[in-house]
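User: I'll paste a sequence; please echo it back and then give the predicted structure.

Assistant: Echoing your sequence first, then the prediction.
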Amino acid sequence: MASIIVYADSVNQALFLMAVAAAILIVLFVVSTLIFSKKSSFVLKDEEKPENGYIAPRISSKTGVAETDLHPSGLARIGGSKLSVISEGEYILKGEKIKVAAIAAGKVKVKREE
């Protein structure tokens, strides 16, 4: 904006150049909005419902074994499935028995089985 004021020979020319710049920005915004609204690959459109073939594993309160060291995240075998898990802050060694503590925000939280 300051460069427009310095470049312009008069106040009227500066106002005109700022209006042109604003119009160009508005056109670019509208065009980019139209382009990206049609190609919205950032948003999952399909819902994961059982009638669509999605079957969520029933793993609440199940036990398993740590496939890798969990510090705090890693892999575990729970209910016959290999899953990415996160411990509740404790370091769990590979091969230790674990129990599912919670499932929240798509993350499986585990703790050492006692």
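The mean pLDDT is 84. The CA atoms of residues 74 and 85 lie 6 Å apart.
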